[in-house]
Amino acid sequence: MGTLNSLIFIILLISSASAQTLIQMFPNRPQRNGDDELFCDSWRLSVETNNAGMWNTIPAKCLKFVVEYVNGDRYASDSAVVAGYSLDFARTVPITGDGKDVWVFDIDETLLSNIPYYAAHGYGSEAFNETAFDEWVVEARAPALPASLQLYEELRGLGYQLVLLTGRAEFQRNATVDNLLFAGYHSWKRLYLREDSDIGKTAVAYKSEKRAELEAQGYRIHGSSGDQWSDLIGSPMASRSFKLPNPLYFIA
Amino acid sequence: MGTLNSLIFIILLISSASAQTLIQMFPNRPQRNGDDELFCDSWRLSVETNNAGMWNTIPAKCLKFVVEYVNGDRYASDSAVVAGYSLDFARTVPITGDGKDVWVFDIDETLLSNIPYYAAHGYGSEAFNETAFDEWVVEARAPALPASLQLYEELRGLGYQLVLLTGRAEFQRNATVDNLLFAGYHSWKRLYLREDSDIGKTAVAYKSEKRAELEAQGYRIHGSSGDQWSDLIGSPMASRSFKLPNPLYFIA
After folding, report:
1. Secretion signal: which residues (chains A, B) (predicted)?
2. Shortest Cα distance, chain B CAs vs residue A244, angstroms
């Protein structure tokens, strides 16, 4: 952890040195000077509730806040509480034993954590670099998000069929399977990745189509977990959808 | 403010004396003893993202957290940042001048703040008392939520028609109008309250019907602001919906 923290602070120093001019958001709103933490906490709430709409990079003045959030207790606690509510709901569902009771999981920032990647790429302060991220995917060394791994096992124990639905592409299937196994996941029912015909679709369109496909095959989608609203919304939806925190990036 | 703070702490003392046994939520999730603030902050995020689902009263151990939140900087900041994103979006909409461009506002905890009422009734730790709340409504002295009053005026300046859509009942119309004027609101296009035929409907059903009625009359609902997800979801929805914070109560 000492090494990781050192790395984080080195990255912070580098990022600060090359920081963009601070863009003062909402200049006509009351704000006290220097109250970045208060603002950034409100910005994060707006991101998590989807009030912020589409965004590309985190506000420049929120880099320190984001670094502390994802590496500190709060991200872990927020994730654990969402998992707790997910399990509470999951337990209320009568599982039939016909193998058709499904829970859908997104992968990145839901089952797997790419914090080590984002630590080396500005924590959401830099534009998304697809080449660099694809190299990271091939390494297949993303750790599990601990709260999600625990929930995954609990749902499996309750008899849910686990369906993984990711925006990653089909050519990344082997690396993705390797990484899931490395992180401790196994025994999923199905793993959907984007096929060639899905490239260019929004996440909402692509993921809704896959949920519709599942329902057409008789599956009952009781729950869905994702770090993006685009993992969850669109028709059909799961009976209950659970939004995991992600202050690093936005996917439409 | 000194008097208000004294009042708050007296209420806190009374509430503590009669506090329910602390219900440890999610006992199988990692939590450190005494780390109520961390948990309560995660609980609040789950409420705001609708992960918590239906709930009746705030967790007993989060009373202090909620009191500090709604009376401190964070509630004001969170509300102001949502209003900022709302205005950002509102400015992107071409307003036609035909009087059909609408923004819908909920009233309680959106335009008006009932914090003075909840300060005297346990800040969400007590079951909702309809009789007591109706007496408070008749007083017509709820202040404006400052960020919403500013947004309301800005939207009016941009040419939006302002439609108010509340779960309050028709018999409360006069008191509601008095209160809105007292708080500084004026010149709304329409004020919908529940008629007898709406009593018993969920907020989602009732509010969706009213949005459908507006659309049938040719109005374009660009934006909608509410402190409950049930203010915002259901078909038809506004082009963009904005969820204001409310850690005090939940309406289905």
Report:
1. 1-19
2. 9
Domain spans of chain A, in order of start:
80-243
Q: Which amino acid is at B170?
A: E
What is chain A's mean pLDDT, rounded?
90
Select the residue of B50, B52, B243 nearest A51 (Cβ to Cβ): B243
Question: Which of chain A's residues have a Cβ under 8 Å away from the Cβ of B73?
Answer: 35, 38
Q: How many CB atoms are located within 10 Å of the residue B3 CB?
A: 7
- CA atoms of A163 and A155, how far apart (whole Å): 11
Torsion from C-alpha of B1, B7, B13, B18, nearest 10 degrees: -140
A86: closest CA of chain B, how far (Å): 8
**Residue to substitute from B25, B33, B85, B235, interface A, most A β-carbons within 10 A:** B85
Encoding tokens for residue B30? 């990692």
Report pLDDT digits (tens) over A105-163: 999 999 999 999 999 999 999 999 999 999 999 999 999 999 999 999 999 999 999 99
Say how far apart CA A168 and CA A229 lie, in whole Å: 17
User: What's the CATH code, domain A80-243?
Assistant: 3.40.50.1000
At A242 the three-state DSSP class reads strand
**Complex confidence, ipTM:** 0.88
> How many Å apart are CA B153 and CA B184, to the nearest integer?
10
